[in-house]
Amino acid sequence: QAKLVESGGGSVQAGGSLRLSCTASGLRFDDAAMGWFRQLPGKERELVSCITWSGVQTHYADSVKGRFTISQDTAKNIVYLQMTSLSPEDTAMYYCAARAGTCYLAPSWYVIWGQGTQVTVSS
Known about the structure:
The protein is built from no helices and 11 strands. The chain has 123 residues and is mostly beta strands.
């Protein structure tokens, strides 16, 4: 059974950094795209970044370009989201998600979801 488990969230001050991890199991890794989404209460989930397991395709939301970096460790089946220069606007619940094929923006295209990890950035 496919499963995603996020970790690495926490509370930081503005300008700080965090690295989120998504440990995956039970996936067809050679055909997977892994996305990081975030969601505020009452808001829709938005794609922050995505990477295909091969690493060929990556995507970043405009709001995080130059600050966040997505990567994968294929030996450990972990996808990372390195977040730097964090601002209070980055405060949200962050979710890892997986789908077959390429990266898509809409969360409805992703079929496997983790439980989420909270990121809180104080000013």
